[in-house]
Structures are given as structure tokens and as C-alpha cells.
Amino acid sequence: MDFNFEYKARQEKIDGCLHQYMNDLRGEIPEILSDSMEYSLFAGGKRLRPILLYEVVSALGKDAVSAMPLACALEMIHTYSLIHDDLPAMDNDDFRRGKPTNHKVYGEDIAILSGDG
Fold first, then answer.
1. pTM here?
2. ∠115-113-69 over CA atoms, to 5°?
């Protein structure tokens, strides 16, 4: 088993699921809000949390695919925490993963709604 190959495959599977969730939201929420949510959700994270959940479920002999919604939820919660942590009232960070933080691109109001979304 090639660890890097397997890890990349898991990342792609999780990203695909996250993209599907975001596509399902399109048209249901304002475009600026979905753009802001995607900006942070797809900013280049390692997807470690959902991959760990996926692997634990698999190691327990369960259908790991059935855990995908929960795995994606973990990544969304993690992204929420990063957006809110970067806000001016918190750490007031200007950059996250080498890119301007959400509130620097979309404004503090949209960033708060994006994290909550």
C-alpha cells in the first residue's frame, strides 16, 4: 500500500463530497455566501480529521462510505472554527494558508455568516 496514494485518494473523495454539498446549496443561499463558504472550505486543508474518521470506521469493519457525511461535517466544523478564529474580534489574522482570510476578502459580516453556514 502506498500511503501517499491512499491519502490523496481519500482527500479527493472527501473534496468530491464537499463539492456536492456546496453544489446542493447553490441557489438556496445568496451567491456571495456560497462563494465565501467555498473560499475557506477549499483553501487547501489536509483533510486530516475526516480521513481519520474514515479510517477508524473502516478499521472497525464498518462501511466507511456510510461515514462520509459525518467526515464532511467534521471538516465543515473545522473550517467554521478557522473562519471565526481569524475574525478581528478574535485573532484578527490577515492570512490563512497563504491566502487572505475570509473576512479580508468578503468582509466581517459575510465571514461570520459563512462560518455559521
1. 0.89
2. 45
